Amino acid sequence: MTGFNWRPYDEQAAREVRAAREARDRQLAALCALGREIAAHLGDGWTVDPFERAALLRGPAAEVILFGWHGRGASSVGLFGQFPGGTEQADADADGGWLICATGDGPQTIAGRLERDLLPAYRAALAKYGDAVSGGTDAQR
Prior knowledge:
By secondary structure, this protein is of the alpha+beta class. The chain has one domain (11-134). 43% of the residues lie in helices and 20% in strands. The protein is elongated, with a radius of gyration of 20 Å.
């Protein structure tokens, strides 16, 4: 068999790949569990969906907040305002904003900071984005 690059099955490599997938799945499950707790503190209409290696907090007024572990480990989460339809996130400084919170503060504190520090600017940017998309007319929204 010339030209065939045959390599014996590597059980150790397969175990490492499985272990890495399982660790990623556990991290995503923990992130979604934290997200559900945050959503409960935000009130009715907030839901959580896994999204690749992060999660999405979805609000009752079309809010979409992407959040994931910040840095190494699970000591903090980053929260970012997103726009519906898969468009780019808002300009972090001027429009939608972003927030980093220590997970040790707990979901109630994270939800409070989200409501106080990120959602007001994000909602204003979301409204401005909606106006730009619809050409400024309410009939198209």
